[in-house]
Amino acid sequence: PQERKILSAVLELKSKVIGQVMTPIDKAFMIDINVNLNQLLLKQIYSEGYSRIPVYDGQRENIVGLLMTRDLVLINLENSIVTIKQLSSILLRDIIAIDVETKLEPVLSYFKGNSTHMGLVTRKHKVIGSELSIMNIGIITLEDIVEEILQEEIEDE
Ligand code: ADP
């Protein structure tokens, strides 16, 4: 019955953590802030088809923000070649970091309350004798959470 479906979706939100539904970082399509915004890059971005792309500086571990594909309509390719870094004031948005153990529910509320639909999933990493470091291990979108709830309902049929 409907009540059971709703209940199981709610329980899902309360028990699962984002680490269970995220896209692992090595599967994420990301771009380097230092690359030129040329025709080739735009083609690559459009063929990947994502609306949000994490941006890193130099190394993939060093994520500095988020590029919204739709903002690229602002780019005039007739102009001289520029990097994303040079246009970061208009192209680079903040990306929120969320610990891997965070439950789905607070993340869903956060995505609803803020006009952001992607977060960076992080894990605290402590090596004895050295400082605590924070590692980026995945990306999570509103879609991943909604998908998980729907999945649960379908399995429940
Ligand atoms: P889009 O709006 O780009 O279609 P969604 O937010 O609907 O993306 O997410 C669809 C799936 O794709 C989710 O599993 C999400 O984690 C994944 N995803 C979103 N952006 C990227 C990206 N840049 N690289 C890899 N996977 C991504």
From TrEMBL:
Keyword flag Transmembrane: yes
Assigned GO CC terms: membrane
Localization in the cell: Membrane
Keywords: Membrane, Transmembrane, Transmembrane helix
Gene Ontology process terms (BP): magnesium ion homeostasis
Name this polypeptide is given: Ancient conserved domain protein 2
Gene designation: Contig53.g63
